[in-house]
Amino acid sequence: MSFNKVAVFSDETKQFIKPYDPKAGDTVRFCLRVAKGDKCLVSLHIAPVNGIGGPGYPMKKTESDELFDYYTVSIQVYGTPIRYYYSVRAEGHLHYYNKQGIRDWLDSHYNFRLVPGLNVPEWAKGAVMYQIFVDRFYNGDKSNDVMNHEYAYLGKTAMSLPWEQDISTGDFCNFYGGDIQGMIDKMSYFKELGIDVIYLNPIFVSPSSHKYDTQDYDYIDPHFGVIVEDGGDNLRFEKVDNKHATRYKKRTTSKKNLEASNKLFAKFVSLAHKNGIKVILDGVFNHCGSFNKWLDYAGLYHGTGEPEGAYHSKDSPYNSYFLWHGGTWPKNDCYDGWWANSNHPKLNFETSQELFDHIIRIAKKWVSPPYNIDGWRLDVAADLGQSPEMNHKFWRAFHDAVKEANPKAIILAEHYGDPSSWLNGCEWDTIMNYDAFMEPITWFLTGVSKHSEESHPHLRGDALAFEGAMRHHMSLLNVHALHSAMNQLSNHDHSRFLTRTSSNTGRHHSVGSRAAERGINKNILMEAVIFQMTWPGAPTIYYGDEAGLAGWTDPDNRRPFPWGKEDLVLIDLHKKMIALRKEFSALREGSVEFIWTNHGFLSYGRWDKSAKIVVAINNNPKPLDVTLPVWKIGISDGELTERMQTGGNTFRQTAKRYPVSNGELKITVPILGTVVLVQS
Question: Is the pLDDT score of 236 beyond 50?
Fold first, then answer.
């Protein structure tokens, strides 16, 4: 019998690395699986910097089961991250195995990663997260609503809109009234849904509805919190195109309102914790807002006892917080803005230790009592600083401060591209998983981009491209980062996945909101949900996706939650799949391997010592009869039980049994449907 390359498998999970979260000085047991009875010589290689060669450690066959032999070796690891791979010599040929699979050559880019001393919290691995754009979730306190024309910002005046009104241009100054009290009121909804974590878009004081332009990092915005006093009016100036006066209500700067809002937020976090739910805040530290007292573009803090903002005085103590480009004072727009946005002045950590220390203090403040948040999501984290050196210096200090204050807090960065230089155990814990989740599954199921702006129909159903993209981008993450990575179908920056199911392209300003709902296909969204809830990572639901919200990219993706008009089938599907995920540790931290793929069809397995799970996804316009080689995940004979099937705009859980013979499973997968089968 010839050497069975397909049977060779290893990964970085608990099944193949013990302990899989070693500390410096620990002895680690590495394991590689081969087909039972295959005669081979197996070695582990710790790779040098260039990833090729390095010492080889011979491995011995120490275990066997019905299908496989397992080779192991134990070595001591130290405090630095390592890269490793395996070699297998069989029938006179030398093969290499890493995250690319088994090859006759070694591409070191795909070598495994082990980072001794990682402190990624266990609660985050495989957790189900729920993202909330607070102004659009639920209005629990109408007394804190923004007043019409309360203030002006970027040429717009703040407006309070009815919950049912469509998103319109100038959305950054439109408010629907969602707030912290609304989330408190809906705590039972979160509990029934089954989520583990709430991730909040920014909630600190800011003039916009999105609040990515922070005015004050020390306080929750009273329009999200509590307004106990009006505070009166101020006549202030804001320079947009021409200088003009605007009335500015002091509702967001009244000390009583700020302190009461912080107190309400602490109450919300405490209630979430009592219900077994963690809370993560959005940390926007690359830039602040032009209203921030450090710049004070509009002069809001002038005469309040605060030092002059840097925009108004070259003697301001905050002058070094920003990067200036000469000119006379006032500086007009001669300061760096993020992507040249003057309302998002970029913070200049290189020239201000005081700024550096202030943000580190903020990082510690919110993960500490009385607030006790469970971590930070870091906005455009790779852009912070003017140089890579400052970027890494800052995130190392941020990591140390947060972990010292709350060792179980998570540090999760927004990032596109290779994140590996930050995932070193002393900067970020994990990332928002665009490259190894949102993008590949969007192209495979819909053929359009995550912004619904590009269409490439040839990518829809291209299983080879999908598998290649997933293997490539997942290889850049260590196992702890992978299992806690934020796996989203939609979020506040991209179109709603339900809109993408139409395969149409467009934007809110060019085709209108209603076009986002034309031609949508709920079956495809259900396929995506099944994938999201059964793939490695932390599946993250963007509020309203589970209720059937559509929408183009920003701002149309920020529609109010459709209370009273929810798609109850979709909500129930999410509940059932979250419950299934919690039932089986294999779905949270188990191994994953593709079983068989074809055009428009995916099948893969998740398994650990307690269960083996088969997922099949058919994105074709006809049912498919397939025979799946489930022996690849250790199933030789017996039965599999159907725990979920989707298709026909609904789902079912029948507990139907499917026989397995000689490691093969025969099954029919519905049109635009899925099947999830379990052997436990």
Answer: no
| 10 to 33, 41, 64, 423, 475: CA distances (angstroms) | 6, 16, 15, 21, 13
Distance of CA 294 to the CA centre of its chain: 31
Helices first, then strands: H and E counts in the chain: 13, 35
pLDDT tens track for 522-546: 999 999 999 999 999 999 999 999 9
Structure tokens at 581: 């995920």
Q: What is the DSSP letter of 437?
A: I
Indicate the pTM of the whole model: 0.95
Q: Are 435 and 414 in contact (CB under 8 A)?
A: no
SS3 state at 272: helix
Q: Which residue has the tokens 């070094």?
A: 320
DSSP notation for 543-572 = TTGGGT----STTGGGPPP-TTS--HHHHH
Q: Which residues neighbour 649 within 8 Å (Cβ) at sequence distance 6 or greater?
A: 522, 523, 569
Of residues 98, 115, 120, the one with CA closest to residue 107: 98
Q: Go through 396-433 and write b for each residue having 16 or more CB atoms within 10 A of its CB, e for each that does not.
A: ebbbebbbebbeebbbbbbbeeebbebbbbbbbbbbbb
Amino acid identity of residue 61, one-letter, is K
